[in-house]
Amino acid sequence: MSTPADSVYFDFQAAMGMTKHIGGASATDELVRMCHITPGQHVLDVGCGVGITARWLAEHTGVTVTGVDLRPAMILRARED
């Protein structure tokens, strides 16, 4: 369940264009390998935050990505870039 402190934290992340991505780029590379992600596929990024991973996937693997997040501020920030 979300708390007021969570709200402040996630709103701050959205405003700064930041995201928590445990494992960083190497975790994303591993995800691509394990999921057999190849150009032309469509990927759903649930909990996409500000879209950093979704954008990276689209640019580096040639997939189309749809991102969803519970925080409207995250989606608004993701659409800015």
Q: Give a count of the beta strands, DSSP E runs of length 2 or more.
A: 2
The proportion of strand residues reads 5-15%
Q: Which sequence of SSEs, written as H and E, runs from N to C?
A: HHEHEH
Q: Describe the sheet with the most strands.
A: 2 strands, parallel
The coarse silhouette is elongated
> Which strand order do you get reading across the main beta sheet?
1-2
Q: How far is the N terminus from the C terminus?
A: 30 Å
Helix vs. strand class: alpha+beta
Helix content: 40-55%
How many helices? The count is 4
Instruction: Calculate Rg over CA atoms.
Output: 13 Å
Poorly predicted segments: none
Mean pLDDT: 84
Short descriptors:
81 residues; alpha+beta; two-stranded parallel sheet; 4 helices
Tell me what the structure shows:
This protein is an alpha+beta fold and 81 residues long. It contains four helices and two strands. The chain has helices at residues 4-16, 24-34, 52-61, 72-80, and strands spanning 42-46, 64-68. The protein has a two-stranded parallel ribbon with strand order 1-2. The longest helix has 13 residues, at 4-16. 17% of the residues are buried.
